[in-house]
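User: I've been trying to design a sequence by hand for this structure and keep getting stuck. Would you show me what you'd pick, starting by listing the structure so we're on the same page?

Assistant: Good idea, let's start from the same input. This is the structure you sent:
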């Protein structure tokens, strides 16, 4: 039986006074939809321009940072971890999944020169308004109806990526409701073995304290993100052994927060 962690959620302390939070959220409610539409429609006009992915990547990163600011949420990462990610190459990023804030927080803190993309279910890419932007930004489209096809698609996409780009995978597969990490799926390890890439584990803390499952409006507070040393798959071990070793390394950081 897991022990309750009284420290978890300690960063769910508002970083703005109540009047400022009210003003920011009013701005988000009234102007947020127009800003989202702008971000969504830019690819329709510019997707064929030279260097589109580079500057659209930075545009989306800025949008994520502005969203967190309007929500009164701060994402924290140490300078050393930022430097580590800024020089990271040849990796697959693996991050635990606590809430819908996780992707926005990661986009906010990662340096501009570290380029990554997400793997997403095919249904998201079928939405007419989002399809061009997702494809233009290099989102990896996964058909989850066939596990074998999904792995082949993901491995092929990773092999075709430049060294400085990484795909972000959530090994738990969904948001975890437990106090610790959920069980890991083998996909990240299998893709790393297939492509020869290392795994860069990242641990996110307190995002679920700000936006618990079932809630729509997040609390104001701080999300902390830790970057772990690169994880190398062991060719002498089984896939399951590598998965358990990866999970243990991330659990040691998460449970020790």
């Amino acid at each position: 039986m897991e022990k309750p962690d009284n420290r978890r959620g300690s960063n769910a302390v508002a970083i703005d006074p109540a009047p400022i939070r009210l003003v920011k959220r009013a701005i988000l409610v009234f102007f947020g939809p127009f800003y989202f539409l702008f971000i969504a429609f830019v690819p329709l006009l510019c997707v064929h321009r030279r260097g589109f992915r580079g500057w659209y990547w930075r545009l989306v990163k800025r949008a994520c940072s502005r969203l967190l600011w309007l929500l009164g949420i701060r994402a924290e990462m140490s300078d050393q971890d930022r430097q580590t990610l800024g020089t990271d190459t040849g990796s697959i990023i693996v991050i635990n999944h606590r809430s819908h804030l996780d992707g926005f927080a990661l986009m906010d803190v990662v340096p501009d020169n570290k380029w990554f993309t997400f793997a997403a279910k095919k249904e998201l890419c079928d939405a007419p308004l989002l399809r061009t932007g997702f494809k233009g930004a290099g989102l990896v489209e996964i058909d989850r109806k066939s596990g074998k096809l999904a792995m082949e698609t993901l491995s092929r996409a990773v092999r075709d990526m430049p060294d400085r780009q990484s795909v972000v995978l959530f090994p738990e597969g969904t948001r975890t409701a437990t106090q610790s990490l959920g069980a890991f799926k083998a996909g990240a390890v299998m893709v790393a073995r297939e492509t020869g890439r290392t795994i860069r584990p990242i641990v996110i803390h307190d995002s679920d304290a700000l936006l618990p499952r079932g809630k729509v409006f997040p609390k104001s507070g701080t999300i902390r993100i830790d970057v772990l040393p690169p994880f190398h798959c062991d060719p002498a071990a089984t896939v399951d052994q590598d998965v358990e070793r990866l999970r243990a390394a991330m659990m040691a950081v998460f449970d020790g927060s």
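That's my pick for every position. To get oriented when you compare it with your attempt: Residues 210 and 219 are 5 Å apart (CA to CA). Residues 18-255 form a domain with the Glycerol-3-phosphate (1)-acyltransferase fold (CATH 3.40.1130).
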